[in-house]
Design brief:
single chain, alpha+beta, L-fuculose-1-phosphate Aldolase, 8-stranded mixed β-sheet
Length: 244
C-alpha cells in the first residue's frame, strides 16, 4: 500500500465500490472494471486487476496504469478491454475521474431489446434526465483504441452510456458520485423492466416535470457522499480486512 494519503483514499474508495457492487449482484464472473484517476493526475488511474472477483479485491490489489494501457505498478495484470474502455474515456473526457463499467442485469436488459431506452417512468429515472447517451451499434470486444475512442465519442457530454447488446458505463467526478449513479440507475431500470413485465403501459412523467426534477436532483452531491460513507461503514462491520 502507498503512504500517499490521497492515493490510499482513492484505493479504499474504489475497493469499497467493487465490493458493494458485488453484494448487489452487479458483477459478472471476474469481468467488468471500475477505475478512478489518481488524485492530482490526469494520465494515470487505478483499476481492478484481471482474475480477482470483485468481492475479494482489496485496496492493495488495484493496479496503476497510464491512459495508454501501460501498467505502472501492481502485482496483478489488467484485462485487455479494460485498458481501451477506461483509458480512452479517462483521456478523452476530463470530467470522468471515475469510470464504472458493468453488465448489471436490469440496465443491461434495456441494451438487448430493440430501441431500449430509460423511460421517465419513475422518480429514480429522473435523476438521469439529460445525462444519458446510447450506443446502438454493438461492435465486438473493445480490443483496440479505435473502439475505446468510439465509445468515448458516443458518451460525449453525458454521464451514462448504454452499450447495445453489452452493458453500461457510468462516469463521475468522484467514486462516491459515480457509484450513487450506478446504484440508482439499476434501481430505475429494475422498476421499468418490472413494469414492462406486467403488460400494462408505463405511466410516464410529463417532460416539463421530468426536466424540473432532474435539475432538483442535480444538486444532491452531499447525499451521494453520505450514501457511500454508509457503504464503507457496513463493509467495516461485515467484512473484516477488506481495507487490506
Amino acid at each position: 500500500m502507498t503512504d500517499d494519503l490521497p492515493e490510499q483514499q482513492a484505493r479504499t474508495d474504489l475497493a469499497a465500490a467493487l465490493r458493494w457492487a458485488s453484494r448487489l449482484g452487479y458483477g459478472e464472473g471476474v469481468c467488468n472494471h471500475f477505475s478512478v484517476a489518481l488524485p492530482g493526475r490526469d494520465d494515470r488511474f487505478l483499476i481492478n486487476p484481471q482474475g480477482l472477483h470483485w468481492s475479494e479485491v482489496t485496496p492493495g490489489d488495484l493496479v496503476v496504469v497510464d491512459a495508454h494501457g501501460r501498467k505502472i505498478t501492481g502485482r496483478h495484470d489488467v484485462e485487455p478491454t479494460a485498458f481501451f474502455i477506461h483509458g480512452c474515456i479517462h483521456r478523452g473526457k476530463p470530467t470522468a475521474r471515475c469510470v464504472l463499467h458493468t453488465h448489471m442485469p436490469y440496465a443491461t436488459t434495456l441494451t438487448v431489446i430493440e430501441n431500449g431506452r430509460l423511460e421517465w417512468a419513475s422518480q429514480n429515472s429522473l435523476k438521469f434526465y439529460d445525462r444519458i447517451a446510447y450506443d446502438d451499434d454493438y461492435n465486438g470486444l473493445a480490443l483496440d483504441e479505435a473502439e475505446g475512442d468510439r465509445m468515448c465519442a458516443r458518451l460525449g457530454s453525458a454521464d451514462v452510456l448504454f452499450l447495445a447488446n453489452h452493458g453500461i458505463i457510468v462516469t463521475g467526478r468522484t467514486v462516491a458520485s459515480a457509484f450513487d449513479d450506478l446504484y440508482y440507475l439499476e434501481r430505475a431500470c429494475m422498476l421499468q423492466v418490472m413494469g414492462m413485465r406486467t403488460g400494462r403501459a408505463l405511466r410516464r412523467v410529463r417532460e416539463t416535470v421530468a426536466e424540473k426534477t432532474g435539475r432538483q436532483m442535480a444538486g444532491e452531491s452531499a447525499q451521494a457522499e453520505l450514501h457511500f460513507e454508509s457503504i464503507k461503514r457496513m463493509l467495516d462491520r461485515d467484512e473484516k480486512g477488506w481495507r487490506g
